[in-house]
Specification:
The chain folds into two domains: 8-227, Spore Coat Polysaccharide Biosynthesis Protein SpsA, Chain A (Alpha-Beta Complex); 233-419, Hexapeptide repeat proteins (UDP N-Acetylglucosamine Acyltransferase, domain 1), CATH 2.160.10.10. The strands form seven sheets. Strands 13, 15, 16, 18, 19, 21, 22, 24, 26 and 29 form a ten-stranded parallel sheet that branches. The protein contains eight helices and 33 strands. Helices cover 18% and strands 28% of the residues. The protein has 431 residues and is of the alpha/beta class. The termini are far apart. Bound molecules: uridine-diphosphate-N-acetylglucosamine and magnesium ion.
């Protein structure tokens, strides 16, 4: 037991195949709100400020490793070649934590919604108990492991398959999340056998072993929704819905106007400022920040972009990665912006594609304007920082242009050059 604040390490189990997902993608990589469920678990653990994070991968381990490292380059991924049970999975993390001293917290990669304060409560409970297990009162206890209490202590965990009728009547269930001193945890795990109904090395067996050794164990309880594990596409969809409902409530509480909250979809990392207005049917992919007072009009799709104060986007706009909208810009209907900076006050109001470009302050990009950024081999950058008015004239349905279209691989630059020389138009005259 430890009085002082200990260092924490996190072990995330994610070797399972996830048969019921019926997928080639490892279960823990299925996304919720744009991030693999594994990343949600990794994020949840961040509240403990862990000095180490070890992910146990198995099925398609290389893919799992790639996703884990993409989120956090400091994570260690170990491979459990054969899935012999949760206890065996934890044992795979031992070498990676050989020189670690402190508490280890075991999480599941397919249980993405554990709240930060729940994990903090577990670490708090470690001050008084050797092992802390996260439990919940299950409405439908089904096949969860049951937490058996005795004399104010957690006495053992019984897996459903191995439980008696009396034990199955217990509704306090095991979430799978366990905290203990790392050295103690690995000692206990080494003592687990596989003489049980599943022939697996159950992590849950460490409780009875610990109690027999005179160690103490307790349960911290959380809401059932937090421990929601995902095993099927249906449960994945349920998890998505839960996430979205929570994200909508958070946005509303944070002072964002959502006219029809149930039609707005957030990513795990969406940031929206106070007094922003989000109209119905807007989808946020990963990596979006919207500043205070911006408006995202209906049916717009945004990912990897930044929208500044006072900007108005949509309706029917698409902002792709690298779109940077400065203050008071307008991006209107059927406009796609990718990897482009739209400087302060500039307008791209209708039917345009602005990609790999730099648009100057107060420019007015006319209807039907596109930047031809791709010549079939190379991507080119278009820069127009002069704040002009661009117009595109149409001739028999084809944009007026020089040197071929963007599709035929010849033209580099942007159509609006054809409008050059049409003198006397003020900014604001077009579009
Ligand atoms: C486990 C618990 C059960 C608990 C339930 C909560 C055990 C023995 N049982 O049962 O008490 O109520 O979770 O959902 O621990 N994994 C590996 N390698 C393995 C086996 C599993 O990495 O060899 C990973 C899985 O990918 C998953 C997690 O461990 O993320 C849990 O495994 P799972 O097979 O779902 O355990 P349950 O039978 O649900
Ligand atoms: Mg499970």
């Amino acid at each position: 037991m430890n009085g002082a604040k200990m260092a924490n390490a996190v072990i995330i189990l994610g070797a399972g195949l996830g048969t019921r997902m019926n997928s080639d993608l490892p279960k823990v990589l299925h996304p919720i709100a744009g991030a693999p469920m594994l990343v949600h678990a990794m994020q949840a653990a961040m509240v403990l400020d862990p000095v180490r994070c070890v992910v146990v991968a198995g099925y398609e381990a290389a893919q799992v490793q790639k996703a884990a490292l993409a989120h956090d380059p400091d994570v260690t991924v170990v491979v459990q070649a054969e899935q012999l049970g949760t206890g065996h999975a934890v044992a795979q993390a031992q070498a990676a934590l050989a020189d670690f001293v402190g508490d280890a917290l075991v999480l599941y990669g397919d249980t993405p919604f554990i709240r930060p304060d729940t994990l903090e409560a577990m670490i708090e409970a470690r001050q008084t108990h050797d092992i802390v297990v996260l439990g919940f009162e299950a409405e439908e206890p089904a096949r969860y492991g049951r937490l058996i209490l005795k004399g104010g202590q957690l006495d053992r965990i019984v897996e459903y398959k191995d439980a008696t009728d009396d034990e199955r009547a217990v509704t306090l269930c095991n979430s799978g999340v366990i905290a203990a001193d790392a050295a103690t945890l690995f000692d206990l795990v080494a003592a687990i056998g596989n003489d049980n109904a599943a022939g697996e090395y159950y992590l849950t067996d460490i409780i009875a072993i610990a109690r027999a050794r005179g160690l103490t164990a307790t349960v911290v309880e959380c809401a059932e929704a937090e421990t929601l594990g995902i095993n099927s596409r249906f449960e994945l969809a349920q998890a998505e819905a839960l996430f979205q409902n929570a994200a909508r409530m958070t946005a509303l509480d944070d002072g964002v106007t959502l006219i029809a909250p149930e039609t707005v979809y957030f990513a795990y990392d969406t940031v929206i400022g106070r007094d922003a207005v989000i109209e119905p049917n807007v989808v946020f992919g990963p990596g979006v920040t919207v500043e205070s007072g911006a408006t995202i009009r209906a049916f717009s799709h945004l990912e990897g972009c930044h929208v500044s104060r006072g900007a108005i986007v949509g309706p029917y706009a698409r902002l792709r990665p690298g779109a940077e909208l400065a203050e008071n810009t307008r991006v209107g209907n059927f406009v796609e912006v990718k990897n482009a900076v739209i400087a302060e006050g500039a307008k791209v109001n209708h039917l345009s594609y602005i990609g790999d470009a730099d648009i100057g302050p107060r420019s007015n990009i006319g209807a039907g304007t596109i930047t031809c950024n791709y010549d079939g081999v190379f991507k080119h950058h278009t820069s127009d920082r002069r704040g002009r008015v661009h117009r595109v004239e149409h001739d028999a349905g084809r944009p007026c242009q020089r040197g071929g279209s963007g599709d035929d691989g010849q033209r580099v630059g942007h159509y609006p050059r054809c409008a050059r020389g049409r003198s006397g138009r003020r900014a604001g005259a077009a579009g």
